[in-house]
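Quick one: structure tokens for this chain, please?
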Amino acid sequence: MAARIRQPGFYRAGVWMVGAVAFSFFLTWVVRTSTGHSTFRHFISGDAILTVALIAVPLAFLIGIGGFDYWFYWAAGRPTRPEDHSGHGAYTWKDYFRINTDHKVIGIQYTVNSFIFLLVGGLLAMLMRAQLAQPGSHFVDANTFNGLFSVHASILIFLFIIPVFAGLGNFVIPLMIGAPDMAFPRLNALSFWLLPVAGLMMLGSFFAPGGSFADGWTAYAPLSTNAPIGQTFFSVAVQFAGASSVMTALNFLVTIITMRAPGMSFFRMPLLVWANFATSLLVVIATPFIAASQFFVLLDRALGFNFFNAGHGGDVLMYQHVFWFYSHPAVYIMMLPGFGIISEVIAVKARKPIFGYRMMAFSLLAIVGLGFTVWAHHMFTSGMANWIRIPMAITTSIIAVPTGIKIFSWLATLYRGVLHLDTPMLFTLGFLTTFTLGGISGVMLAMIPFDIHVSSSYFIVAHIHYVLFGGSLMTIFAGVYYWFPKMTGRMFDERLGKWHFWTTFVFLNLTFGPMHILGLQGMPRRVSTYASQFADMNLFISIASFGLGLSVLIFLYNIVTSWRGGPRATANPYRAMTLEWHVSSPPPVFNFDRVPTVVGGPYEYGVPGAQHGIFTPTPTPMGASAGVHATSGET
């Protein structure tokens, strides 16, 4: 192996960041001391300078740690460094704090970083519930409360749920399809390092003059165009998080299409690969829309373009249309990878083939198409043309069909299966329960009169948390526990895992279940206080939410202690068939010492002599230059 080149460190990153900050201060000085035309002074106003600084400083950090080295060398006409894999693979814990091109290292970086932001977002939720424990409480003031729920939602959507699925997919999918790495390793590394930048920027808005952005994660105009400068932190952070998502999605698409092992046709791919393929299509198509919405907000704030200023000919409703054209597909971006995880766990733990495998794959693609036809059901009370409500209500009801296909397929797979009720399976069954409840309330909200009645109430809070906490987070926990032995080479504590599940499941329902009742009784959402008639139930919800927060500590303790000293994991502790379980735990640096050949489906449990993959008898190194490409047809 080639000698490892010293990688750029945080010292050089700090130098670049100091330079970017100095540039921002210089720009500020130019504005303050300028005696030129007033138009010039307005053109580079305070918001414009802040926008430049918020873009320049993170980019300087990324340049400093080596994120753009290759492209800078190429653009400058200097010899580019050959890929000698010196930054590939983790040999010490320090390698996880550097730019690394190994998809397994990047997957762990993604996952750990995402859970750090889960803790931050959860802490903000605890502060909100402390404020809402009693009516008229002064634990925080109203503006701070608005900032808490805005940053809470933004952090957990953009910095936890979406990236953690990218992390699990990064680790598992190249292994599942028999590839040595992702298609674009450098781009893969860059896509991760954009995320901590975006998260710190969102949290940094709390320290901005006037406070953090306080108009919700939706950042509705005209609130966002007139808000204090903390809003600019959000708008720029979303651009970084969106760029990360698009880079990751493109990488997944190219990897899945071009780097499948010989014999792995599309209908021999595991359903997690199908789910990430569908999700990546959604991300590539939809994410530019939220980037555009926040780009327009920045132009309104910094340069006075007035896209959304009704007083100057702007269109406020247009913001909502552009925003929700991304943000409803985003719900499926936060759900489809979880559907894939559930399929993997159920097949293994029930020891049965997935019922209706091809229909499950087609239903994933159906959700991709239908996901772009329902965005305006978020706008039934916005003042848009009334006739639009009818087709949106119809398509919202129809999109429940492909999701229902999955629920019934999973139940059919479980029927008469030999169930192994360990921790991943418990979280899978918990998901089926809570997500179905969230889906039922979603169908209720497709009905126009009911939606108008509860639109600004706590019923919406209950629905979204049953979908994202009861749906997405349950699948995330199932996936982390399921692949924990493969990722770390250690087994987790099963007893603590079950304690984690039951505390999560019980307190989840005690926290968010009563919110349906509060909403139907008329309690508004996004308020820091409320009428005394809602006091008892809010106190109950706050106490339950603290229990839900403590359940996460059980998970953290289990994961940290097991990673450090848990029993050694075998290559295939679950007797699974997919390719990632054919290699050691943790896997070798380039995944496979020999080229795998796929000869059957991934879920043929109970079929005598069934095999998913075999290995050629002659060892074939699989370095970066020995990529495995797909072959057409099935053998």
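Confidence is low (pLDDT under 50) at residues 1-6, 619-635.
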